[in-house]
Design brief:
rod-shaped; 116 residues; 1 helix; mainly alpha
């Protein structure tokens, strides 16, 4: 004997109405996803990724420019130090030449006293 009565279909027990679960909750319908919203989120995600990639590229380019600037500055500093060294050597040579022109001892002139 079948327990089916009008309104009572197989799978529905007496007391349950169609659209209700045994716990009394309504049955869930398939979730409908708005394709426009889905595309909007996908495009937003893509834009964020592209922004981050661009940021990395720009940061890398800025870092390369900074390193090139520092290398040039270091080369200028080394050239300046080399020039200073050469000038110091020239000054020392000029000092030695001038000191060589000076007499080693005070001249002895009769009737003249020289101090120093």
């Amino acid at each position: 004997m079948s327990n089916t009565t009008p309104g009572n279909t197989p799978g529905n027990t007496p007391g349950n109405t169609p659209g209700k679960t045994p716990l009394g909750n309504t049955t869930t319908q398939p979730i409908r996803i708005d394709k426009t919203a889905m595309w909007a989120w996908a495009i937003l995600g893509l834009l964020i990724v592209l922004f981050l990639v661009g940021l990395v590229i720009v940061s890398g380019a800025a870092l390369r420019r900074r390193r090139a600037f520092l290398r040039e500055q270091q080369a200028r500093l080394q050239a300046q130090e080399q020039l200073n060294q050469e000038l110091e050597e020239e000054l020392q040579t000029a000092h030695d030449m001038q000191m060589g022109l000076m007499p080693k001892e005070s001249p002895q002139i009769a009737g003249l006293n020289i101090a120093g």
